[in-house]
Amino acid sequence: MKKKYFRQQEDAPAPLRCRVDRVVRFEEVDALAIVWHGRYPSYFEDGRVLLGEKYGLGYMDFYRHGVIAPIKQMHVDYRLPLSFGEPFTIEAILHWADATRLNHEFILRNEAGEVTTTGYSVQLLMDQEQNVLLLPPPFYNDFRQRWLAGELV
To answer: Residue 138 and residue 142: Cα distance in Å, rounded?
Structure first.
């Protein structure tokens, strides 16, 4: 059994999820016709972007509120290769955090439903002068309150 990337707090709401369907493009593979390992962060980005748009936490939402959210940490676990032309899905999962950060988990599955790749990223919330925010900004705090109230299912 795989170790969980993020611990679920007892009083935390259920994680938020979305799914992106993709097909491996020629530009994403190496000479062996399998996805080059350096492409996986962009797959994670596809999931992060869709999840952010779905729940009102997109990059432009942060930008409008003067907040930046750079990647602080990223991890990838490779299990099975993906090949040129192969359909796959990216599941992006946002886990609750009491700190002002975004904890995303990613699960990639091939057409047979087999897990090919997993990973995570951590983003810190900062002001535009790149100071880490110790308290959630008002728009993010509102989002968290709606999440806790079960309004984002």
So the answer is: 6
